[in-house]
# Entry
Amino acid sequence: MSVILNKDSRIVVQGITGAQGSFHAQQCMEYGSKVVAGVTPGKGGSTHLGVPVFNTVKEAIKQQGADVSLIFVPPPFAADSILEAAYAGINKIICITEGIPVIDMAKVKKHLNTLKQSGREIIMVGPNCPGVITPQECKAGIMPGYIHRRGSIGIVSRSGTLTYEAVWQVTCQGLGQSTVIGIGGDPVQGMNFIDALRLFKDDEQTQAVIMIGEIGGSAEEEAAAYVKENFKKPVFSFVAGKTAPKGKRMGHAGAIIEGSSGTHEAKVKALRDAGITVVENLSEIGKVVAGFVKAEA
Amino acid sequence: MKFVEYEGREIFLKHNIPCGGCFAVVKSKEELKELNVKSFPCVIKAQVLAGGRGKAGGVKIAKNRQEMLEILEKMLGMEIATHQTAGKTIKVEEVMISEFVQPEREMYMAVTMDRKAGRPVLIACAEGGMSIEELAVKKPEAVIKVFADPQEGLMDFQARDLAYALSIKKELFCDFTLLAKNLCRLFIEEDASLAEINPLVITKDGRLLAIDSKVITDDNAYFRHKEWDKIPDRDSCDIEKEAKEIGINYIALDGDIGCMVNGAGLAMATLDTIKLAGGDAANFLDVGGGANVEQITRAFKIILKDPKVKAIMVNIFGGIMKCDNIASGLVEAAKNVNINVPLVVRLEGTRVREGKDILAESGIKIHQADSAWEAAKLAVELAAKNGREG
# Structure
């Protein structure tokens, strides 16, 4: 078992004819993912990378049975693309696009919440994230496929490249991943740490979780509180930004230190208080996790 | 984008938020002779991007023209440090001369994005003027929070609730509810990440006025706000501006190890790793996910513009970013720029083999490392030992 994606997932790529969408759709196909359709308004009826392109997500579902959407649409139109997928009936939406205005995501979130309240089980991952991969089954994102290996470690992360770092170290230790979820670093996002932990909690394949956080916001603190009460599997964590100067915006909208909340110190303390192992040296994440898993076995 | 008070005031007025009068904005001492202010006393306020100006001498009252000129003479060009400037000073290059109002009551009101709720939140407080951060810690019950809808803004009933909670008197009730709604509307329409009034004043002559106007907007929304082009970037140093122009996120720091990394998280973690290895980074540099050879070449030039740099550490984990692109950029940069400091490179990810081949065949002296930790240790060691080789 795995979470979010498996070998039967049928992906529609929104923005498949753009440069990024095209490159990464192909990479996903080469990895073995079932990319069954593309959507680019105005280009319906054509074929791209050997799959049919539709004008709307609705058609992609009807004609090709798509059940996962992977979005590469540029920022001015990306929020609308998420809503198009959601209202068309897709329940797993992964938005890679970086640079969506925060207020647009707040509007998206409002709509998704309404749909969820009406009974839909929608998972939205991102935006501004590397995507989701279930190794050796399905890759829906921009992560390099070869660094992954099927295994028992669930990984959830706010940062793209830090996710790869953690994945690669786990793989180099001879272990593997159940599912890797990049939730992205934007201030208003779809899935958060707790949502991911809930999925990993019920997943038999996942035996331990790595949670990669960064300064800013309070997602790590909230996740720590959740773990303390509800999560029995071992959790390992790294929090980036210990040495970041105060008040400086370091790329991610999420990575801003405001006041005393969201600091590295506060996060590490909350995580440790919840029984989570916090790794200080980025390059030792894999080693620490492997040490634990091998001792258990 | 951060706006100074008088620019924020213009945005406030556009959204029908009443503000104290502005008589002039002075940008140089040459303008003082021509300066025409008739209403005294007046208030002279340094236009800097930091709160806490008042305590730091950035807000003064002048009783007459003579006093006003003396204050302006001193304030223009003065270096100011507040609790929000992180131990550094900011030079005062612009000064606003504004109406002197006598407050009967001072309040605080702001709208920002609540990440957890994913909605704008209006924060208000019956006491204004002082540091809201302090108040939030000392008297959290005094801080009122109201969530606004990201499309509708603040509803009438929410604005009324707020007015009752703050005991707004009858005569100003409608002015107040309208102002609160307009501030939320401003936040949504201007793509703000912060719109703050501190203090919001009820004057002795019975007016409701914004006496300060702090606006910060979301850079991601630039594509629909071309009017931001007119606003100077006061928040970045020259190198940071140059980096921004070519789409690279660069922040100058105090150490001596130049960094080039892809991804904000990995870039931050790289700074942490350098610190752990006993060194300090000279910069934060995120080349982003889609950088091309030209951008990477220019990123190297930017790093080397900082005379403190004694070694460079490149830490790339390719996802969107392909390692062969980084390698080609590196080789191009080495041809065009004299990289006169040791260069430590750690590549991993998409097309890593091609990237490593390009580096190996180029003949450039590069120290390769297999992990961020190894690269950081090596960079720290080389920086301490060599300094500039050229």
